[in-house]
Amino acid sequence: MRILGAGKTGLSIKEVYSDASLFVDTDRNHYDANSEELTVVSPGIPPHNELVKNTKNLISEYDLFSDKMPFSIWISGTNGKTTTTQMLQHLLESSGSVCGGNIGTPIATLDAKAKIWILETSSFTLHYTNKAKPNIYILLPISDDHLSWHGTFEEYEQSKLKPLSLMNKDDIAIVPSKYKQYPTDARVHYYSNSTDISNTFGIECSKIEFKEPFLMDSLLALCVTKILHNKIDYNLMNQFVQDAHKLEEFRDKRDRVWIDDSKATNIDATIQALKTYKENYIYLILGGDDKGANLIPLFKKLSQYDVTLYLIGKNSTQLMELSRKFHINAKKVDFLKKAVEEINKEYNSTKGSVCMLSPAAASLDQFASYKERGVKFKEFVHSFCN
Fold it and tell me: Most buried among 131, 146, 179, 350, by the most CB within 10 A?
């Protein structure tokens, strides 16, 4: 067996299959394109990679471990899959579940004796998966993301929908209503919004303490407990503690509200975040590596808000051009530190304003991760504003 990629996934598979040959992109001269060996590709390697294009028996890590996979719940979509996965693990841990996949533990080293695997599942993994399937598939809404990897939105969308084509009549899926025509043998519950989910599964939103967009995540997690155990535990759900850098509010010494939403690495995440503060004046820090996404839908939404933009990162010039086109107040400041400095001078808390870092872009053009970007944001605020 061969393994393509020496990232977290590839190295974890190598731990289990010590005799497997491990290749990275620089090994092209030593890579046999005519080999009939089973080759597991790490999800971060795109299909246009030369080694991938010159591989015959290519499979995903999910396919590799499909025979040992216990009852599994896969969670995918553009935004909210990490939170939904964590919420569901919080609810099902006492039932013997473990979680991993795209977050935390790679499936190669997940406990095979666990009763349930809860897997945050990326479109990258799904693209390469042709055998493994979930028992329950939770699909959150799909919007533009990872177009530089997939090539087109249609290909990205098809990867997210692929599990439906592999599932059988004993499997259950919860899927956005726009995909009602997608062929599947699974039993599917369709939804358009949180109200649809709560009505279908008899869940009372008033008993849940999370606001959108996390309300939908919590409803989807509770759906699964209703399916598995005919039980809705509101108290346990409300005890869940959200990760940092997701609509995380904090205040400076002048009692002004700042929001760390650095986890918003695509436009839909930022659009959803804006809804929470639609009644406020928003100082919005925007920009980074947009991964080739179409930014016009974001600016159409921004034109409906009382907002000033502070543009940073790799795509700041493009964002400035769109700001002019949509007549939105904006300043091209290029760097996060400069954005906080400028906002600190102008931030008037008397008009119900908030400052939000919700970049609608990945962070790797200027930071090691979205977490580092969020940490730096807080450091700058506490440095300049206290």
Answer: 146
